[in-house]
Amino acid sequence: MAGTGFGTVKKDAALKIDGHSQETLSLSDTEAVFKLTKINLLTSSKISLFFGDGSPKTVTGLDTMTIVPSLTQVTPAIGSSGGSLLVI
Questions:
Q1: Which CA distances in Å does 5 have to 34, 52, 58?
Q2: How high is the pLDDT of residue 25?
Q3: Rounded to 10 degrees, what is the CA torsion of 71, 35, 22, 25?
Q4: Which residue from 50, 78, 71 is spatially nearest to 62, judged by alpha carbons?
Q5: Strand pairing partners for 23?
Q6: In this structure, are residues 67 and 61 in contact, taking their beta carbons and an 8 Å threshold?
Q7: What's the CA gap between 10 and 86, in Å, rounded?
Q8: Residue 27 and residue 13: Cα distance in Å, rounded?
Q9: What's this model's pTM, rounded to 2 decimal places?
Q10: What is the pLDDT of residues 53-79, one digit of tens each?
């Protein structure tokens, strides 16, 4: 997410979607990156975003969020001919 005044202390950033805390990956004064690890639906209007001094006024568009799922990782990268358990 892009904006201004986010700060740079990663532990001070908090994003909740549907009451579930999301992981903060990186934080700068102009960008916050979160890993969405648990959500209830692909569209949510229950979004809370906080930084060290509260929610910045320059962040807009948090009334509703639509999430587009994508496959980002499959482990293990190789398997056997007899079959392998994949983690997606």
A1: 17, 10, 8
A2: 93
A3: 160
A4: 50
A5: 35
A6: no
A7: 31
A8: 8
A9: 0.66
A10: 776 655 666 777 777 777 777 777 777
